[in-house]
Design brief:
heterodimer; A: two-stranded antiparallel sheet; two-stranded antiparallel ribbon; B: mainly alpha; 23 helices
Chain lengths: 686, 519
């Protein structure tokens, strides 16, 4: 069972070779190498997962190398394989392999392909290190490693100022979370004298009544530790408050959004909470926070998703919202359900992103849905793939048949279990989740209708104009004009009158096979992943083994919720669909009227609840202001003025008086030395 | 080593080479300097390989009494070993980095070689007065390097550098004389075991503090550093950041902590307070810098503050972390200054805005710069992380507030370093001359490659660096334990909760029955 070593380190090897070889290696070699490595990893991962699924595999740890040993603090490089890891392995390697393949087509015209593929493989390595971690510090290694890869990939088109800003923002905001994670590790070490995850989990219940000091307060040990660690999870998984980087991260190429900012990296927070679930179960306050933040995020992000025009931003907010579901599922104790949603979401969200990428590809880098429309017939394969993704995310299925698309199984389970939990917070989460499900259905169908139905509105798009006027054959503009803040409508032209049909004479083209094959495979995942794996993830304690805290009684209660609860998700899904149909197919004047009527509310939501503005005002601007003050007024104005410059002044004055006797540097040193001596002696005598 | 005086040889080789450099022409001086530093590097490797981990605390000792109880005594423990290895590792790189020096090359090389003698001497000295001589004499070559081969404002910078560091050392000398008088010996290992009266420790500690705080440098006596760095030639900056700043930390770990444990505990809030101020203030200042070298200089002050909190955490993790931060910072900030030097040699400006988009025309340079940027902000897998993590893990056991404030450095550090990286390597090529700069030459590869390898080595397998000092740190920790302040985070046991937080009501079977009924 040493295949795990290959699974983890092949992508690293490929990344190093492709990255260092770069242009000397050539596009094809670099691409083949990285993609090949990922397909091998993927092929090796599935048997491990299937082994756990049919109960033949056992959890084990493969040691690699001693890392740090300092006093009693010691941790190793080691790869842990258990059910939870196996689930993540297949998710990561499958999506990554498909995204690698997809990028052959999507990035075909980019001059910097080896670098891109090296980053993708590097990311995969870091993510695999994260999920195979046997101690908290290696998890942190993976945690920051994926952060680095995310930074590099968001900023891949590094000529664009907006891409650089987004990349730095992603890294820095994540670091805020990482600060919490780090403090959590320190606290955990202080309490348990170890960073080994199995040892911590075993000892956690015994510590549940104890207290530790933190920032001058004396608090419940487990609550403090879990909240600190959860702050890390909030950063990585873009939960309310630390979410602001995720929508901006859409500056990266779309395959990156699919892999990192939908299927894998952003789910690391959920994975962490599930990995540490026995620990979180000893911390009721922390779990309450997880539930509340998750529920609030799923609602908050969904509201924003309904107003955005950029196709990728809609899906980004959708991701943020779906992660909220996973968190509150974990918060109420249904870690299996959280992981199940993580699993299904990885497939259908990657599908939606890659589908969006295919649309963007077809529309010559136009991302604004206001300039789409009627694409159904032009790119039918992409359309059907997106359709499957939409059916999956909105949770279409028939309760009585126990059959539906992926999201039907996982999201419905989360809503039911939140209700079944019976606490106030659980019920709050249920209602938030239900409203968010309505909004999810609305914005998903809105996306579909705006993109694939209606009449072509392409003529007004700058990108399309550019394509039509300059032809397709000229070298691709690889740093498309910065996607201005979606509010700036002025950047787009008014439709030119000569093309009455709105197409501007442009012909969208279906994507190449390298892009369609991943779409096809992910479509299968979006359709079947829920139905096939529902039993194992939700109802089978033997499947999970000891890898998560499995709350059997809660799962039984989940199945016992009233019928109306079970049907809630389906009902709100239909309502959302109806709303979207009404507003974007039946009578397209409704959205405009609504915006006019409720402009205050719309602005608030459209401006993303003003989080960015707020943070800019209270963090970013003051940081630079204080920096300048400390520098100009502190260092220069105060310390230097009364320190060395002042001393020099005194010495200069003094030497003028004694000019006839001596001159030169040596004299000043002697004087200073004398002053020092006097000061020292005075001090001693006092 | 069979009595072979390797430490003396390591002092002698650069000393003789330095004298020789004074009398030969430029080209020969370069060759001599490179050869001498490479020989010292080889000797350093021999030293490391022959260092007996778990053996006696002081190894490779040499002793020759001179006069009045003062003797020529050398010897190293693991802590000194690592810092000597760092010094001899950086020296050949500095010689390579001095390619663009054309003025008075012989004297320049001599200054560097004398600098090397004094650096090794500081870490190897076992006699208090010998240490003092090496410690203070180290100022002179650096003063000359800045003052003669520096930038436009070099006189002011050299003066500021000298004034600051001298002021502290006067006080230290007085304290040393008092100590020798009190303990009746100048032998450092003996003094490290000597229990000075608690009352006297206070002012002795302050006198040493005055010197080490400036060397470190700690806020608010740090303002000489940005000027010195900005004006110093590239290799001067590398040695300044790489080794000279480490002398302050070495001083704390060799003198202040073991000799005055009670006073160290007494002044713990002074150190913590200044360190917290340094992390926040200098990080914010680094954020608004327009000059590359100034930015890295300010970041050095912030990193050194992590060293001081680690040292004054009074536990093994803090001490070892502080040592690793010192080694790591020596490599990383040295490498960052080299990176600045590489492009300064091409464009002759340190102004950040004159660059941009270098990842396009200098991809290999951009890759190295990225690695060192990441090491500087403590990305796991690089040396920066191991040190920072251990230091902060140490201070957490002492005080959580201090940890929180100092850990904000990881956020601010990411901010200013990535902002720098954006303006240098990313973005569009704003200036034609910057866009035309060629990528790394072989010479530059030879400078940056070894440091990159060392940074990754220390990040992935720091055991190589932790093992030699483990025993010395444990001994120091044991000596400090009597004075260590109690942490605010300590655990108080309680009655464990009976069931999981999400345990639902009803027994297993009842829940099952309900579920059956509902279906």
């Amino acid at each position: 069972m040493q295949s795990i070593l290959l699974i983890v380190f092949l992508p690293l090897l490929a990344a190093v070779v492709a990255g260092l070889g770069n242009r000397a290696l050539g596009n094809t070699v670099a691409k083949s190498l990285t993609t090949g490595a990922l397909f091998i990893s993927c092929a090796l991962s599935w048997p491990i997962f299937l082994g756990f699924l049919n109960g033949t595999a056992e959890a084990h740890v493969v040691p690699v190398l001693l890392w740090v040993q300092s006093g009693t603090l010691s941790f190793d490089w080691a790869l842990r394989v258990d059910t939870l890891t196996a689930v993540m392995l297949v998710v990561i390697t499958s999506v990554s392999a498909l995204v690698h393949l997809y990028s052959w087509g999507y990035m075909d015209e980019d001059p910097d392909q080896p670098r891109f593929f090296a980053y993708l493989s590097l990311f995969t390595f870091a993510m695999l290190m994260l999920v195979t971690a046997d101690n908290l510090v290696q998890m942190f290694f993976g945690w920051e490693g994926v952060g680095l890869a995310s930074y590099l990939l968001i900023g891949f088109w590094f000529k664009k100022p907006s891409a650089n800003k987004a990349a730095i923002k992603a890294f820095v905001v994540n670091r805020v979370g990482d600060l919490g994670f780090m403090l959590g590790i320190f606290g955990t070490f202080l309490v348990f004298q170890t960073t080994s995850i199995p040892e911590i989990l075993a000892a956690a219940p015994g510590m549940s009544g104890s207290s530790v000091g933190f920032l001058g307060m004396r608090l419940q040990t487990m609550d403090v530790l879990c909240i600190l660690l959860f702050i890390g999870a909030m950063g990585k998984s873009a939960q309310l408050g630390l979410h602001t980087w995720l929508p901006d991260a859409m500056e990266g190429p779309t395959p990156v959004s699919a892999l990192i900012h939908a299927a894998t990296m952003v789910t690391a927070g959920v994975f962490m909470v599930c990995r540490l679930s026995p620990m979180f179960e000893t911390a009721p306050v922390a779990l309450g926070m997880v539930t509340f933040i998750g529920a609030a995020t799923c609602f908050f992000a969904a509201t924003i998703g309904t107003t955005q025009w950029d196709i990728k931003r809609v899906i980004a907010y959708s991701t943020c919202s779906q992660l909220g579901y996973m968190f509150f599922a974990a918060g109420v104790g249904a870690y299996g359900a959280a992981m199940f949603h993580l699993f299904t979401h990885a497939f259908f969200k990657a599908l939606l992103f890659l589908g969006a990428g295919s649309v963007i590809h077809a529309m010559h880098h136009e991302q604004d849905m206001r300039y789409y429309g009627a694409l159904r017939k032009h790119i039918p394969f992409t359309f059907w793939a997106m359709m499957a993704g939409t059916l999956a995310i909105t949770g279409v299925g028939v309760y009585w048949l126990h059959a539906g698309f992926a999201g039907f199984h996982s999201k419905d389970a989360i809503l039911e279990v939140a209700f079944a939990r019976g606490t106030e917070l659980g019920t709050f989460a249920f209602w938030m989740g239900a409203i968010a499900a309505l909004l999810t259905s609305f914005y998903s169908w809105r996306l579909m209708f705006l993109t694939f139905w209606g009449k072509p509105r392409w003529a007004a798009s700058e990108h399309i104009q550019h394509a039509v006027h300059h032809g397709h054959d000229e070298p691709e503009e690889h740093n498309p004009p910065a996607q201005e803040d979606a509010g700036d409508e002025a950047v787009h032209h008014v439709p030119s009158p000569e093309h009455g049909d709105g197409t501007a004479g442009y012909h969208p083209h279906e994507s190449p096979l390298t892009m369609l094959v991943p779409l096809g495979l992910l479509t299968l995942g979006a359709i079947f992943a829920g139905w096939v794996f529902s039993h194992a993830f939700l109802d089978d304690p033997a499947f999970w083994g000891d890898s998560i805290f499995y709350n059997e009684a809660l799962i039984h209660q989940m199945h016992a919720v009233p019928l109306w609860v079970k049907l809630t998700a389906t009902i709100v899904m239909l309502l959302g669909l109806f709303g979207a149909w009404l507003a974007y197919i039946r009578d397209t004047s409704i959205p405009g009227k609504f915006v006019e009527q409720f402009s205050l509310l719309h602005n608030f939501v459209y401006r993303k609840w003003y989080f960015d503005e707020l943070y800019d005002l209270i963090f970013v601007k003051p940081a630079f202001w204080f920096g300048r003050q400390f520098w100009k007024r502190g260092d220069v104005g105060l310390i230097d003025r009364f320190g060395p410059d002042g001393a020099a002044w005194v010495v200069a004055k003094g030497s003028v008086a004694a000019k006839k006797m001596q001159s030169g540097y040596l004299y000043s040193y002697a004087l200073v030395m004398l002053l020092g001596l006097v000061a020292a002696v005075t001090w001693v005598l006092m | 080593m069979g009595g072979f005086p390797i430490l003396s040889v390591m002092l002698l080789v650069p000393l003789l080479a330095g004298v020789a450099c004074l009398f030969v022409e430029a080209k020969a001086a370069r060759t001599i300097a490179l050869a001498a530093t490479l020989i010292d590097l080889a000797l350093g490797v021999v030293l490391w390989l022959n260092f007996d981990i778990g053996g006696p605390q002081w190894q490779f000792t040499e002793r020759a009494p001179l006069f009045a109880g003062f003797s020529y005594a050398l010897g190293i423990d693991g802590i000194a070993l690592l810092l000597i290895v760092l010094s001899v590792f950086l020296m050949p790189i500095c010689i390579l980095a001095s390619h663009s020096i054309e003025k008075r090359v012989g004297e320049y090389m001599a200054a560097f070689l004398f600098m090397e003698v004094l650096m090794i001497g500081v870490f190897a000295a076992q006699d208090l007065l010998l240490f003092y001589i090496f410690f203070e004499a180290g100022l002179i070559p650096m003063y000359l390097i800045i003052g003669i081969w520096g930038g436009q404002n070099r006189i002011y910078a050299a003066y500021k550098f000298f004034l600051y560091t001298l002021l502290g050392s006067v006080l230290m000398l007085i304290a040393m004389l008092w100590m020798v008088n009190e303990a009746g010996t100048t032998d450092i290992p003996t003094l490290m075991q000597y229990d000075f009266p608690v009352g006297a420790q206070t002012w002795l500690w302050l006198a040493f503090f005055a010197s080490f705080a400036v060397k470190m440098p700690m806020w608010p006596v740090h303002t000489w550093l940005p000027d010195a760095h900005v004006q110093a030639p590239t290799a001067g900056s590398v040695i300044l950041a790489g080794v000279l700043l480490k002398m302050g930390g070495y001083g704390f770990i060799r003198f202040s902590l073991p000799m005055f444990p009670e006073a160290s505990a007494q002044f713990v809030w002074l150190i913590w307070g200044l360190s917290m101020a340094a992390v926040v203030i200098t990080s914010l200042i680094a954020l608004v810098q327009q000059d590359m070298k100034k930015l890295i200089a300010y970041s050095s002050v912030a990193h050194m503050a992590i060293v001081t909190v680690g040292l004054f955490a009074f536990n093994v993790q803090g001490l070892e972390g502080a040592m690793i931060v010192m080694l790591s910072h020596g490599l990383v900030s040295g490498a960052l200054f080299l990176c600045v030097g590489v492009i300064y040699d091409r464009l002759h400006t340190r102004e950040i805005d004159r660059y941009g988009g270098l990842a396009i025309n200098m991809p290999k340079y951009a890759l190295f710069f990225l690695l060192f940027t990441m090491a500087s902000i403590g990305l796991p897998g690089t040396s920066g992380f191991v040190g920072e993590f251990l230091s902060l893990a140490g201070i957490y056991q002492a005080n959580t507030w201090v940890t929180l404030v100092c850990a904000t450095g990881i956020i601010l550090g990411a901010g200013y370093m990535l902002y720098l990286y954006w303006r240098i390597a990313f973005g569009v090529q704003r200036n034609a001359d910057a866009a035309a700069m060629p990528d790394l030459s072989l010479r530059e590869w030879l400078m940056l490659g070894p440091i990159a390898a060392a940074v990754l080595w220390m990040g992935v397998y720091p055991e190589s660096f932790l093992a030699p000092m483990r025993q010395d740190i444990a001994a120091l920790d044991a000596r400090l334990s009597r004075a260590a302040p109690e942490g605010d985070a300590h655990l108080v046991a309680g009655t464990p909760r009976a069931e999981a937080a999400n345990a639902v009501e009803g027994t297993h079977d009842a829940a099952h029955g309900e579920a059956e009924g509902a279906h």
